[in-house]
Design goal:
The chain is of the alpha+beta class and 164 residues long. Helix content is 40%, strand content 21%. The chain folds into two domains: 21-55, no CATH class; 61-150, Glutaredoxin (3-Layer(aba) Sandwich), CATH 3.40.30.10. The protein is built from six helices and seven strands, in the order αβββααβαβαββα. The strands form two sheets. A four-stranded mixed beta sheet has the order 5-4-6-7, with helices on both faces. The protein has a three-stranded antiparallel beta sheet with strand order 2-1-3, with no helix packed on it.
């Protein structure tokens, strides 16, 4: 009868050790060979991906509502090099809510600048698209409303990774 508590304690301890977040880097070298390690690659030409923790992918760790909203209403934020405080506030809001998004810098990429002019009518940033809806400028209430309407969770869950 005493074996059960000992086995249970050992299982709990093993799970706790396995759950500790460790950073693992995955990279592909110039020959196309895939490597894993606890340090980023030293080869400048290698493309590295940082992987936090173990087990479930970041999509599996997102709330279901966020996963569904991201599939049906992806979020894109158009910024520029000197966007300043408004862009920072917008990106912080998305991070706080755990909303996955793509950031496009219209100053760095001519295609993004063209797309921004099409959807916003000019070169004004920040602009957020949520599915087919466009929100020009940063107004927290407008951004929150667009995200709510799209079905995004209102807050990031404890342990949920931030947006990519």
């Amino acid at each position: 009868m005493r074996a059960k508590p000992i086995v249970l304690a050992a299982c709990i301890a093993a799970l706790a050790l396995a759950a500790q977040a460790q950073t693992v880097y995955k990279w592909t070298d110039k020959d196309g060979k895939v490597h894993f390690g606890d340090q980023p690659p030293t080869d400048r030409d290698a493309t590295a991906q940082r992987i936090q923790g173990g087990g479930a992918s970041s999509e599996e760790q997102m709330p279901y509502a966020t996963q569904q909203a991201a599939k049906t209403n992806p979020v894109v934020v158009y910024t520029s090099n000197d966007c300043g405080d408004l862009c920072s506030k917008g990106l912080a809001l998305l991070s706080k809510r755990g909303v996955p998004f793509t950031e496009k810098n219209a100053e760095k990429n001519p295609e993004d600048a063209t797309r921004l002019k099409e959807i916003a009518g000019g070169f004004q940033v920040p602009v957020m698209t949520v599915g087919s809806k466009t929100v020009k400028g940063f107004d927290e209430a407008n951004w929150q409303s667009a995200l709510d309407d799209a079905g995004y969770a209102k807050t990031r869950l404890p342990g949920q990774p931030g947006p990519k």
